[in-house]
């Protein structure tokens, strides 16, 4: 996934806006050592650091990490793939917001890496898209692709049920202390062209596979199909569904 960093910072305003309950769940203490996994440009990393913890932000995108470093020069960031990162030391907690659903190659490998990074008793606290996340948006995409005779799009996300993710955590040796599963309709403030913009922003690889001459009409069809469920007088909404959990090594 190639991120447009400037758009990420504005479009993911909701990440920091909704990050507060996650940080409260994490409850970072002064002098704790914490990893922010999938830190993006460091918006949550800086919040955690402001509570006195020592935080290392890790992200797979060089562009994100470069931006994080220039915006937060006093904090530590590293480029790393969550599927195979390793740390010399063991940390008190790993936290992750709106990132685990992008780590599709092997979710259990990510969980194993997190476990290795934690001391015994260390916490893994995260929020991610859960089963049914963006269902109306995704159905509109799949239907539009079908209408235009395009191959079924391969979606770049993993949205597990609470049971599926809890099983992976337990298989890796975690004790699950909390698993929440809830709807969180979210305003698409940075998508004036609605669902079409959402696809452009979050799934550009899907559009890259569409012949250029039909890309516009396909995205118009996505908007037409998604509008009844997601367009309000006040603007477009995304039908987000969240998993929020806390587990202990
Ligand atoms: C999410 O945060 O749930 C999400 C955002 C963009 C694409 C897919 C999921």
From TrEMBL:
Q: Which CDD domains match?
A: AdoMet_MTases
Chain ranges of the Methyltransferase domain: 34-122
Q: Which residues form the signal peptide?
A: none
In the UniProt record, does the keyword Methyltransferase occur?
yes
User: What keywords sit in the KW lines?
Assistant: Methyltransferase, Transferase
Segments passing through the bilayer = none
> Could you tell me the Gene Ontology terms of the biological process aspect for this record?
methylation
The yes or no answer to whether the keyword Transferase is present is yes
What does the record give under GO molecular function? methyltransferase activity
Q: Which Gene3D superfamilies match?
A: Vaccinia Virus protein VP39 (3.40.50.150)
Q: Write down the Pfam families for this protein, in alphabetical order.
A: Methyltransf_25 (PF13649)
Which SUPFAM superfamilies has this protein been placed in? S-adenosyl-L-methionine-dependent methyltransferases (SSF53335)
UniProt-recorded name of the protein: Methyltransferase family protein
From what organism does this protein derive? Answer: Actinoallomurus bryophytorum
């Amino acid at each position: 996934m190639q991120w447009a960093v400037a758009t990420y910072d504005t479009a993911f305003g909701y990440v920091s806006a909704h990050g507060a309950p996650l940080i409260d769940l994490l409850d970072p203490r002064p002098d704790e050592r914490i990893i922010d996994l999938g830190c993006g440009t460091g918006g949550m990393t800086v919040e955690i650091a402001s509570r006195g913890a020592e935080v290392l932000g890790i992200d797979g995108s060089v562009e994100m990490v470069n931006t994080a470093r220039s915006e937060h020069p006093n904090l530590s960031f590293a480029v790393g793939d969550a599927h195979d990162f390793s740390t010399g030391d063991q940390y008190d907690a790993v936290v992750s917001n709106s990132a685990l659903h992008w780590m599709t190659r092997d979710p259990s490998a990510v969980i194993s890496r997190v476990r290795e990074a934690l001391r015994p008793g260390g916490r893994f606290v995260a929020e991610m898209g859960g089963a049914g996340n963006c269902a109306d948006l995704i159905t509109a995409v799949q239907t539009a692709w079908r209408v235009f005779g395009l191959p079924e799009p391969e979606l770049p996300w993993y949205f597990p049920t609470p049971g599926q993710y809890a099983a992976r955590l337990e298989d890796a040796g975690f004790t699950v202390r909390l698993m929440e599963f809830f709807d969180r309709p979210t305003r698409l403030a940075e998508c004036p062209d609605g669902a079409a913009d959402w696809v452009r922003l979050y799934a550009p690889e899907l559009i890259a596979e569409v012949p250029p001459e039909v890309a516009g009409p396909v995205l118009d069809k996505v908007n037409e199909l998604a509008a009844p469920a997601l367009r309000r007088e006040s603007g477009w909404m995304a039908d987000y569904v969240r998993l929020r959990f806390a587990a202990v090594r």
